């Protein structure tokens, strides 16, 4: 099946630096795809190139096999939800959502119907006549969503839409976004620096660093089999023990040596943190390096200062080529 | 604490009282006195200056001044808006461009008007050039008519429109412009449907700053209009010079002030509605 | 310290004191009415400091002086302003014993109608209003009525001064330029409104450059300004209209508020010296009311018919007078109507 969106050798330079360097990517139709990376990695620039707000210096962007590069943003069947929502302050909620439809010359009756449906989809029914300065941040975000979705684009771009919300609201919106995407079936390209968000929401994701794509795959693939040191360290915590990498939850801890020929390392506990459904222990190994372990049971009353043994299953080892 | 803060108002209030309210009061008093034989004012008190003002001759002149000023303001807005947009998008050149807009203020206004007269008259640069390249056979009457007056007013007051417009446009959230494009608006539609409505406060402020001075202008009307078309400012000027009828001049000035206040109120209300 | 040193020292101190307390004079005059050296020479000879400023219109001067505390000592009112300023009590009575050069004033000005005894003013410079024109026109504008014909392709200007415009119109009607007759004034207004479409503009001396350049072919203009224009272009001429024209003279007066009456008289006497007045005339191209000065001018200026019209021409001239309140109000209103037409 032909991918919905393809990036081929996409490069964008700014006056002072190269923001993205020959990026290649393929996103399937109906996917919830994330672009994940720290600030300055080029994820927003990539999104802006797809939307049409930046012109790439080299490479191509194909939507359904057709190049988007020669088209201005207002001719692309791609819509964006902005980080600060960019809701028009001089228009009501109704007028905001209707904006794109009016540009297309849709008749008034159809506009009213579609706007009503879009607002219902984001649960903003009843707020049609409010102005943006009369609604909350979360509600503005829904307006931005509705405004884009009502146009039924082939691809919806979301530029860190949840980062301006408080943590509780953010978690709630995450679930809503996922459900929404499943319902409407539109392909989402979601840009974020929050790895937890990307891992929980995406069907597939790409990790970016310094203008390059480090790895593409499903969340499970990237977490379990990171292709580079960067990816390993960016997605959750990782421990480097000798030549292998291990996730905290892959490590076991006990006061006594487990025996049975299992390789175990002595360690000294520094701190224990109770996290509700698990406990995190930060320990120091004999060579002085830190080792973070997470266990589900209440760790047999192991406290700070105690000498313990740390061991793991070989199958849980993560081998990274040229770390 | 509140009492202490009130003391801080004292210098400003004193200046306002001495330099603004006191002279205004004097003008009001003059308008109700009678004219002296050779200028100045004297008793008795009378309201005859006001009855004379409400005469079709002067009202017609006032009306003409209003529409000339309104037209000049509209032209300033049409010219100033693209200019403000351009400057706002000019990046590192912004300060330079703003300084260029302000530069004419460093020269005397009178000299600038004379410069225009030099350009526009029959043997001026423009006509000489057009005759030399055979575009015209007779010099064009570019000076000494209402068009020249409007040109002079627009030229003189354009910076007053550009600066508030720039201040507003510069604060526009660029992501709003991206959003408009994203939703299918071409650049022209974005200007019309997003930038202009959001610039309304700047447009209104600039319009006030242009319209009110234009209403009282007399120098430009005199020089660029060749003294043939009189604006209300010229009538006031005459009362304090050749006609030496100060009470009448005062009465007309106050009428003009009333018109200016009315316009400010109406435009101010519109501005409030937007916010 | 010996006696010599002491005397030198006290002399130095005395000089310092006197120069610190130098006499001051404040003179308020029309523009272009003194030569470059006139004031500095006076300052040097009479050991004083002169504050000299200029004004562009008699109304401007009157407005400043009317308050009674203007700070000026000597002003130069036009003839039609002398009477009003007297009535307002603004002018000081002149002490002829301090004006030894008063006899230099030309005969014509020894007993002018605005101050027959010269008690309040000394005639200074004089001029008239006529028509400055380009010799290339097909119809020479020798009468005001010529300006009402469409012979000059609308390249005609009138002065932006109600008294002058009414003056020309009233002369066309055969009336006095100072007329207060409502019927005559109304007809004058109608004439002015008729003339307006034929005019390029109402301009004062600023039109001089345009006449020299050829933009404007015919201009109602003051003789002195016309003379300067003709100095710049041999293609120009000046006519004193056949129906009659306005005469005016600027006079030197001392304000009653002046605290330097003595020095002011000395200044007026200084201006009455033939060589001083002649120098001003030569440099600024003005016409002096000083007969003795005129006689020592070079022939080209002395016999200049524009600056010193012959008696036959002068006979057609009429002095401006102050207009009483009621006719003034009527003129004001008609002037506004003309401008708004």
Task: Walk me through what this model shows.
The complex is a heterotrimer of chains A (323), B (275) and C (341). Chain A is of the alpha+beta class and 323 residues long. Chain A has two domains: 5-230, Rossmann fold; 237-316, Nucleic acid-binding proteins (OB fold (Dihydrolipoamide Acetyltransferase, E2P), Beta Barrel). Chain A has helices spanning 43-51, 93-103, 108-121, 137-149, 167-184, 195-201, 219-224, 229-234, and strands spanning 5-13, 18-27, 32-36, 58-63, 66-67, 78-81, 155-159, 187-192, 204-209, 212-217, 239-241, 244-246, 251-254, 264-274, 279-285, 290-295, 307-312. Chain A has a six-stranded mixed beta sheet, with helices on both faces. Chain A has a five-stranded antiparallel beta sheet with strand order 13-17-14-15-16, with no helix packed on it. The relative contact order of chain A is 0.13. The mean pLDDT of chain A is 91. By secondary structure, chain B is mainly alpha-helical. Helix content of chain B is 75%, strand content 1%. Chain B has helices spanning 2-31, 48-53, 56-88, 94-102, 109-120, 125-132, 146-170, 174-182, 187-198, 200-216, 219-225, 232-240, 246-274, and strands spanning 34-35, 41-42. In chain B, strands 1-2 form a two-stranded antiparallel ribbon. In chain B, helix 3 (56-88) crosses helix 7 and helix 8 crosses helix 9. The longest helix of chain B has 33 residues, at 56-88. The mean pLDDT of chain B is 90. Chain C is of the alpha/beta class and 341 residues long. Chain C has two domains: 20-126 and 248-313, 3-Layer(aba) Sandwich (D-Maltodextrin-Binding Protein, domain 2), CATH 3.40.190; 128-241 and 315-340, D-Maltodextrin-Binding Protein, domain 2, CATH 3.40.190. In chain C, strands 1, 2, 3, 4, 5, 6, 7, 8, 9, 10 and 11 form an eleven-stranded mixed beta sheet that branches. The mean pLDDT of chain C is 91. The chains are: A alpha+beta (323), B mainly alpha (275), C alpha/beta (341). Chains in contact: A-B, B-C.
């Amino acid at each position: 099946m032909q991918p919905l969106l393809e990036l081929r050798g996409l490069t964008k330079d700014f006056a002072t630096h190269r923001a993205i360097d020959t990026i290649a990517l393929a996103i399937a139709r109906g996917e919830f795809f994330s672009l994940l990376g720290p600030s300055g990695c080029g994820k927003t620039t990539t999104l802006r190139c797809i939307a049409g707000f930046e012109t790439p210096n080299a490479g191509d962007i194909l939507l359904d096999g057709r190049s988007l590069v020669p088209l201005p943003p207002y001719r692309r069947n791609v819509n964006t939800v902005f980080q600060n929502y960019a809701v028009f302050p001089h228009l009501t909620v109704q007028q905001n959502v209707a904006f794109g439809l009016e540009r297309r010359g849709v008749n008034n009756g159809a506009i009213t119907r579609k706007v009503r449906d879009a607002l219902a989809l984001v649960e903003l029914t009843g707020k049609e006549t409010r102005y943006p300065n009369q609604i909350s941040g979360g509600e503005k975000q829904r307006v931005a969503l509705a405004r884009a979705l009502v146009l039924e684009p082939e691809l919806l771009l979301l530029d860190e839409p949840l980062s301006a919300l408080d943590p509780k609201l953010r978690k709630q919106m995450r679930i809503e976004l996922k459900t929404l995407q499943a319902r409407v079936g539109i392909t989402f390209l979601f840009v974020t620096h929050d790895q937890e968000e990307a891992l929980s929401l995406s069907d597939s994701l790409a990790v970016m660093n310094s203008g390059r794509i480090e790895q593409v795959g499903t969340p499970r693939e990237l977490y379990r089999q990171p292709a580079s040191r960067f990816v390993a360290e960016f997605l959750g915590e990782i421990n480097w023990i000798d030549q292998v990498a291990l996730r905290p939850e892959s490590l076991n801890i006990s006061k006594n040596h487990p025996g049975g020929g299992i390789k175990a390392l002595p360690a000294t506990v520094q701190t224990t943190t109770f996290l509700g459904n698990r406990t995190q222990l930060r320990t120091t190994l004999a060579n002085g390096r830190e080792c973070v372990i997470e266990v589900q049971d209440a760790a047999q009353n192991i406290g700070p200062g105690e000498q313990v043994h740390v061991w793991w299953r070989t199958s849980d080892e993560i081998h990274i080529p040229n770390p | 604490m509140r009492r202490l803060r009130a003391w801080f108002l004292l210098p400003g209030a004193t200046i306002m009282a001495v330099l603004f309210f006191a002279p205004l009061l004097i003008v009001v008093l003059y308008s109700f006195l009678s004219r002296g034989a050779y200028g100045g004012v004297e008793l008795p008190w009378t309201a005859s200056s006001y009855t004379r003002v409400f005469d079709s001759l002067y009202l017609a002149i006032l009306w003409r001044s209003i529409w000339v000023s309104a037209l000049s303001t509209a032209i300033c807005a049409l010219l100033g808006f693209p200019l403000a947009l351009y400057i706002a998008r000019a990046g590192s050149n912004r300060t330079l461009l703003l300084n260029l807009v302000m530069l004419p203020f460093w020269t005397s206004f009178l000299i600038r008007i004379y410069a225009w007269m030099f350009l526009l008259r029959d043997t001026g640069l423009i006509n000489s050039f057009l005759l030399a390249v055979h575009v015209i056979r007779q010099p064009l009457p570019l000076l000494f008519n209402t068009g020249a007056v409007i040109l002079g007013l627009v030229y003189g007051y354009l910076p007053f429109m550009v600066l508030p417009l720039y201040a507003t446009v510069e604060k526009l959230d660029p992501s709003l412009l991206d959003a408009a494009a994203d939703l299918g608006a071409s650049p022209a539609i974005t200007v019309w449907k997003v930038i202009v409505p959001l610039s309304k406060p700047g447009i209104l402020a600039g319009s006030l700053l242009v319209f009110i001075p234009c209403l009282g202008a007399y120098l430009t009307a005199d020089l660029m209009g060749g003294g043939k078309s009189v604006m209300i400012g010229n009538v006031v000027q005459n009362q304090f010079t050749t006609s030496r009828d100060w009470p009448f001049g005062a009465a007309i000035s106050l009428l003009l002030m009333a018109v200016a206040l009315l316009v400010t109120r109406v435009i101010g209300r519109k501005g409030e509605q937007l916010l | 310290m010996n006696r010599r040193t002491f005397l030198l020292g006290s002399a130095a101190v005395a000089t310092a004191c006197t120069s610190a307390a130098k006499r001051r004079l404040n003179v308020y005059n029309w523009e272009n009415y003194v030569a470059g050296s006139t004031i500095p020479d006076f300052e040097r000879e009479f050991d004083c400091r002169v504050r000299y400023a200029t004004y562009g219109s008699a109304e401007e001067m009157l407005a400043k002086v009317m308050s009674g505390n203007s700070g000026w000592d000597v002003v130069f009112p036009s003839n039609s302003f002398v009477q009003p300023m007297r009535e307002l009590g603004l002018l000081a009575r002149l002490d002829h014993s301090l004006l030894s050069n008063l006899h230099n004033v030309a005969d014509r000005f020894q007993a002018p109608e605005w101050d027959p005894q010269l008690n309040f003013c000394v005639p200074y410079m004089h001029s008239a209003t006529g028509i400055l024109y380009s010799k290339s026109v097909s119809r020479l504008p020798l009468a005001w009525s010529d300006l009402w014909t469409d012979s000059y392709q609308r390249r005609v200007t009138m002065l932006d001064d109600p008294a002058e415009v009414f003056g020309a119109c009233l002369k066309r009607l055969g009336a006095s330029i100072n007329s207060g007759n409502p019927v005559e004034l109304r007809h004058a207004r109608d004439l002015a409104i008729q003339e307006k479409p034929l005019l390029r503009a109402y301009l004062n001396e600023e039109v001089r450059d345009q006449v020299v350049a050829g933009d404007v072919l015919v201009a109602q203009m003051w003789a002195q300004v016309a003379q300067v224009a003709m100095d710049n272009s041999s293609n120009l001429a000046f006519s004193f209209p056949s129906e009659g024209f306005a005469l005016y003279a600027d006079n030197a007066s001392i304000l009653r508020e002046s605290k330097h009456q003595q020095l002011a008289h000395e200044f007026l006497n200084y201006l009455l010296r033939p060589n001083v007045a002649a120098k001003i005339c030569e440099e600024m191209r003005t016409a002096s009311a000083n007969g003795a000065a005129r006689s020592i001018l070079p022939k080209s200026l002395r016999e200049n018919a524009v600056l010193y019209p012959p008696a036959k021409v002068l006979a057609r001239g009429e002095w401006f007078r102050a207009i009483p309140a009621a006719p003034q109000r009527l003129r004001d209103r008609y002037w506004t109507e003309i401008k708004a037409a």
